[in-house]
Design goal:
- The chain is an alpha/beta fold.
- It has two domains: about 140 residues, 3-Layer(aba) Sandwich (Cobalt-precorrin-4 Transmethylase, domain 1), CATH 3.40.1010; about 130 residues, Tetrapyrrole methylase, C-terminal domain (Methyltransferase, Cobalt-precorrin-4 Transmethylase, Domain 2), CATH 3.30.950.10.
- Helix content is about 35%, strand content about 20%.
- The chain has a five-stranded parallel sheet with strand order 3-2-6-1-7, sandwiched between helices.
- Helix 1 packs across helix 2, helix 4 packs across helix 5 and helix 7 crosses helix 8.
- The radius of gyration is 21 Å and the shape is globular.
- The structure holds S-adenosyl-L-homocysteine (SAH).
- The site of S-adenosyl-L-homocysteine has 24 residues, from helix 6, strand 10 and strand 12.
C-alpha cells in the first residue's frame, strides 16, 4: 500500500486537534487496538486518526480504507495482517506474537481493524494475549458494520415501533462452519437479527429461523460494501434470503426484521443521489393534483 508522504501538514493538524481535545499520548511500548469503521474514512474516530498519525508500526486488516494509512508518519512500518477471501494470510497467533515483540522493542504499535475491534474482529483474542504478556494496551472502539453500515442503508438498528431488541450474530464459526446456536431462542427472542459473515450460510440460517416460527415473508436486507461508493442494498424476504445472498458482493451485512421497511423513508443516501428524492417529490405532486 503506498505511503503518502505529502500529509505532513495534515499530521500536524491531527496532532493539534489531539492536543486540543486532550487525547492520550501514544506511549512507546504500547499497543492500541483500534477500529477504523466500516469503510467511509470519515467514520474513523478522532482517537483512531490520532493513533494512525502517531504510530511507529501499523498492523492493518483487509477491510480497511487505504486512504487512512496515508496519515501514517513517514517511516512508519505498515504491515498487512488481514485475511483475504476468507483465507488467513496471517495466523492469529503470529499476529499476537508480532504485537508483543514490537511492543517489547519499544514501538508504538497500532493494530487497526475494520469496524469495531471487539465485534467479530478477534480484537479480544489479541487483547487477552497482550494482557497475559503484560503489554500495556488501549482499545479504541470503532463504528461497527452492523450498526453504522445499516445506517448508511437507511436502516435503523432499533426503532421503537419495530424492535426493542436486536441480536448480533456471526454466520461463520472459527471452524468455517455455521456456528451451533440456539436458533429457536434466537428466532423467538429477537425481532431484529443482524448477521455478520453470513453470505455463505444465509439460506441455511433463514431455513432454521423459518422452522423456528419466523414468517417467510419477513423483510430482510443485504448491505454490501456499506458506506463505500460501491455500496449496494438488496431488499428481500427471509424465504428469499439465500438466493439474494448468493447474488451479493462481499463484505455484506444481513439484517432481518421489520426495521428493514424503514429504509423506504430513511434511504438518505439514495435521496442524496437524487433517486428517492426525485421519485418522492414527483409522487407528492401527483397526489396534490
Ligand atoms: N469488526 C468488524 C467486523 C469484522 S467481521 C465490524 O465491527 O464491523 C467481517 C464482516 O463484517 C464481514 O463479513 C461483513 O459481514 C461485515 N462488514 C465489515 N465491513 C462491511 C461493510 N463495509 N459492508 C458490509 N459488511 C461489512
Amino acid at each position: 500500500m503506498p505511503q503518502d508522504l505529502t500529509h505532513a501538514a495534515d499530521r500536524a493538524a491531527i496532532q493539534r486537534l489531539s492536543t486540543a481535545l486532550n487525547l492520550p499520548a501514544f506511549e512507546k511500548g504500547w499497543v492500541w487496538l483500534a477500529g477504523a469503521g466500516p469503510g467511509d474514512p470519515g467514520l474513523i474516530t478522532v482517537l483512531g486518526l490520532h493513533a494512525i498519525a502517531a504510530a511507529d508500526v501499523i498492523l492493518y486488516d483487509s477491510l480497511l480504507n487505504d486512504g487512512l494509512l496515508g496519515f501514517a508518519r513517514p517511516g512508519a512500518e505498515l504491515i498487512f495482517a488481514g485475511k483475504r477471501g476468507g483465507k488467513h494470510s496471517c495466523k492469529q497467533s503470529d499476529i499476537s506474537r508480532n504485537l508483543i515483540s514490537l511492543a517489547h522493542k519499544d514501538k508504538r504499535v497500532l493494530r487497526l481493524k475494520g469496524g469495531d475491534p471487539l465485534v467479530f474482529g478477534r480484537g479480544a483474542e489479541e487483547a487477552l494475549t497482550l494482557a497475559e504478556a503484560g503489554v500495556p494496551f488501549r482499545i479504541v472502539p470503532g463504528v461497527t458494520a452492523g450498526i453504522g453500515g445499516l445506517a448508511y442503508a437507511g436502516i435503523p438498528v432499533t426503532h421503537r415501533d419495530t424492535n426493542h431488541v436486536v441480536t448480533f450474530l456471526t454466520g461463520h464459526g472459527a471452524d468455517g462452519k455455521l456456528p451451533e446456536l440456539d436458533w429457536v431462542s434466537i428466532a423467538r427472542g429477537s425481532p431484529t437479527l443482524v448477521l455478520y459473515m453470513a453470505r455463505k450460510y444465509a439460506g441455511e440460517i433463514a431455513a432454521k429461523l423459518i422452522a423456528a416460527g419466523r414468517t417467510p415473508t419477513e423483510p430482510a436486507a443485504i448491505v454490501s460494501n456499506a458506506s463505500l461508493a460501491d455500496q449496494t442494498v438488496q431488499i428481500t424476504t427471509l424465504a428469499e434470503l439465500g438466493s439474494a445472498a448468493s447474488r451479493s458482493a462481499a463484505p455484506a451485512i444481513v439484517v432481518i426484521g421489520e426495521n428493514v421497511t424503514l429504509r423506504e423513508q430513511m434511504d438518505w443516501l439514495g435521496a442524496l443521489a437524487g433517486k428517492t428524492l426525485l421519485a418522492k417529490s414527483r409522487g407528492a405532486m401527483k397526489d396534490v393534483c
